[in-house]
Amino acid sequence: MASEYACTRKHGYCGAARVSAREEATRAAERAVLGAMLFHHSAVPEAATYLDADQFDEPRHGYVFTAATALHARSAPTNPAAVLDELHRLGHLHGSLNAAYVHALTDDACLTTQVGYYAAIITREARRRRLNLAFRSGLAALDETEGEDLPELAAKLTRDLTELASPMDGAVGPLDKFAFDGWSFLKHQGEHAEPVWGRRGSVAWPVGEACMLAGPPGVGKTTIAHQVLLGRIGIGGDVLGLPVVPTGSKVLYLAMDRPSQIARAFARLVSDEHEAVLRERLVWWAGPLPAVLEKEPWVLAELAERHGADTIVVDSIKDTIRKVADDESGNAYNRARQNVLAEGMQILELHHNRKAQAGQSREESLDAIFGSAWLTAGAGSVFGLYGDPGDPVVRMRHLKQSSGDLGSFDVVHDFDRGISQIDDGRDPLAILKRAANGITAHELAAALCAKASGPDRNEVEKARRKLDSFAAKGVAFKEDGARGGASGGQQARYWLMERQLEVAA
């Protein structure tokens, strides 16, 4: 059934032409893309990779597209006010293309990552219109031709329709956007994982991947997250010995789990001198999400875009989905997480462990983290924290790595100041510095694990990799061992480079 009257394509003004359901769906897609371009500055180049102005069904939409892309090319704002000024300059601001219509486009805005989906609708319909026009023009020419020209005109019509029906050369659509050839994919992703928090080869939180801090209540997950947050907005230093890369945008902190307590904890780290930075760079969301992720997996990315943030801290995961242990809910959270990452945003997550059974020791593994396996499966880096509520010293272990295993270490929390530091007694470099006679991988593993039964094979191998990394960086000197014989073998021994130089002197 035909919808309400709308502007005709031919004349560009409101007249008596009715719009079909197909045309209305196409124009809704056009409004979604244009709304995104006016609402999200980053959506303008995204839309320009898919579309040209002449692909829009409604002429005024093509004019808005032209204005927005022209502004973006000049590094100018692309909000409604700027676009209206550009439309006026180009002579297109008249009739039904007025200020009210342009401002209303933002009500239909899609997310930047959804631009490709709606652009595919616009592109498909533009191709259909070109086919329709070519077919009708061809039939009209056939009707008017003399008999001897009929084969040539029929062949031309066939060629035109075949060409128009084929995808345009170089066109990029949703099915092409994330496709790379085998070599380009490696270079696109990078040979090394870049850190949000950490260093190359020792990455706690990798760019483009989620980082999760998991543990029971009261072991300092929020305390550590707040320190990383400060580094992200540019007023903090290293966290647990690793630098945090500041963002040029904002951080959105979802304080859904006891927001008042989160506020009191964060207040320990800042003072009045930080007011301007906090107002400009940090957004707190103190309450439940506006929609459940099972139904609206875009809401995390949408919230961040709405508030101009490129980094999200989720405190905590259990407050975002209905049933943490349910795989359907876990998968919904992972989809929401991946939508955030696809937008080029970064995400830090706080989560909880399963309660240990009476009489059983705490399990230091991914299996000990509460809920669906999809929660950890979709994260790039996962840390487990272990201890009792309020313990000033807790154990932290890198359970899942993206680039470089940071191992296990003790963390000392200064709860009065909100600062956390690695206990030097479990710091591999500190242990190496104290080793007057050098150290073997087995000796380092024994010092790190502090178990009566001694380190297992995996722990020794992790210690060996850590010492080898010190040697590769020039921090340590490696004295190769020897295979066993009648007198037995000898393990490789590592020396702090400064001490080795002293011995050589």
Rounded to the nearest angstrom, the distance between the terminal CA atoms is: 93 Å
CATH architecture tag of the largest domain: 3-Layer(aba) Sandwich
* Apparent shape: elongated
Q: How many strand units? A: 15
CATH homology superfamily name of the largest domain: P-loop containing nucleotide triphosphate hydrolases
Question: What is the domain tally?
Answer: 3
Q: Would you give the CATH topology of the largest domain?
A: Rossmann fold
Question: Spatial order of the strands in the main sheet?
Answer: 7-6-8-9-5-10-11-12-13
Low-confidence stretches: 1-16
The helix-and-strand class reads alpha/beta
What is the CATH C-level name of the largest domain? Alpha Beta
Strand content: 15-25%
| Individual helix count | 18
Structure description:
- The protein has three domains: 5-165, DNAb Helicase, Chain A, CATH 1.10.860; 198-422, Rossmann fold (3-Layer(aba) Sandwich), CATH 3.40.50; 428-504.
- It contains 18 helices and 15 strands.
- The radius of gyration is 30 Å and the shape is elongated.
- The relative contact order is 0.07.
- Residues 1-16 have low confidence and may be disordered.
- It has a nine-stranded mixed β-sheet, with helices on both faces.
- The longest helix has 30 residues, at 115-144.
- Helix content is 41%, strand content 15%.
- Helix 1 runs parallel beside helix 3 (59-73) and helix 1 (21-39) crosses helix 6 (115-144).
- With 505 residues, the chain is an alpha/beta fold.
